[in-house]
Amino acid sequence: MPLKNKYILILLFFSISSGLFAQGDGPRAHLFAPKGVWALNVKYLHLDQNLLPGDNILVKNADIKIQLFPTTFVHTFGIGKKFARVFFMLNPGSLNANIATPIKEINEGLTASGFSDGYVALEYGLIGAPALNALEFSKHQPQFSLNALFKYWYSGTYNSEKLLNLGTNRSAFEFGATMAIPFHKNISENATWLEIIPSVQFYTKNNDPARSNSANVVEQDPLLIIENHLTHNFTKKLWAGIDLRYQYGGTTKADGISDDNLNNILGGGVNLGYQISAPLSIFAGYDKILAGDNNAKSNMLRVSVVFAYINLKKLKQTL
């Protein structure tokens, strides 16, 4: 196969797989890829829910409409003989909300703009994920892969004088694993993948709670997240998939007193993606909460555009 065609095939596999978004990593975000790829993923999210933008703090009596534009930079490389991938995500957006409180004059027309929480992350191959260049990758048959995943979440825009913020004024440390299971036996076949991503988030304290809370310190219990995606290529360019995501924990405590806002939530959705050209792909999806305690609700529409690039000239020079 000519090098140019191999390059197209490589980016076909990779560029549709960079679907990171704030409400979970999304479909094909952790599929195996060659080293030396740079990618930019720009997304639009529209959310109507009673969770704050990070999707880990439940506000039971709220109706929050959120517009976010998560933008993620991705680079793949090798650490020794193992595959590795780094991410950096910044998350501009805005929200408006109504919160039912006894004081009517403070519960309507709440707005915020700026940045929601973002992250930096490292993914490292443990099983079935060698560090391969583009040509080696183009010959690599699909197989099970297991990677370690670490994310550091930093706070977005926050003002304690406001009732509601896009940022959380605390950090989070997320530890997880990413598993990808192929149901196709050959790289030439239309791909079918099952991704399973379990993780746990741990939070630092918010020592300057927003004006909606009279406490001196707000803490949050760890949150367990199990994310699943099943996707199938109908052609080499067109794919569709279904999501299933469960999270448990994350109760907040104001000066040690529980806010009774446990996350016990099962969500799901559908996605449709298309490879526009070798370096450019797009997918759209709809997700919602299917079942949850504390009247949890969320409807999310997302559109993701991904551009991926690999230095083909540099690769040729090594041949």
Would you mind describing this structure in some detail?
Residues 1-22 form the signal peptide. This is Transporter. Pfam families: Phenol_MetA_deg. It comes from Lutibacter holmesii. It is a single chain. This protein is mainly beta and 319 residues long. It has a single domain, classed as Porin (Beta Barrel). The chain has helices spanning 3-15, 134-138, 312-317; strands at residues 37-49, 62-68, 71-79, 82-99, 110-127, 145-154, 172-182, 192-203, 218-220, 223-233, 238-249, 252-254, 257-258, 263-275, 280-292, 298-310. Strands 1, 2, 3, 4, 5, 6, 7, 8, 10, 11, 14, 15 and 16 form a 13-stranded antiparallel beta sheet that branches. The chain has a three-stranded antiparallel beta sheet with strand order 9-12-13, with no helix packed on it.
Q: pLDDT under 50 segments (min length 5)? A: 1-22
Strand content: over 45%
Structural class: mainly beta
Mean pLDDT reading:
88
Name of the CATH superfamily: monomeric porin ompg
CATH topology: Porin
Order of helices and strands: HEEEEEHEEEEEEEEEEEH
Discrete helix count: 3
Pfam families: Phenol_MetA_deg
Keywords: Signal
Signal peptide: 1-22
Protein name: Transporter
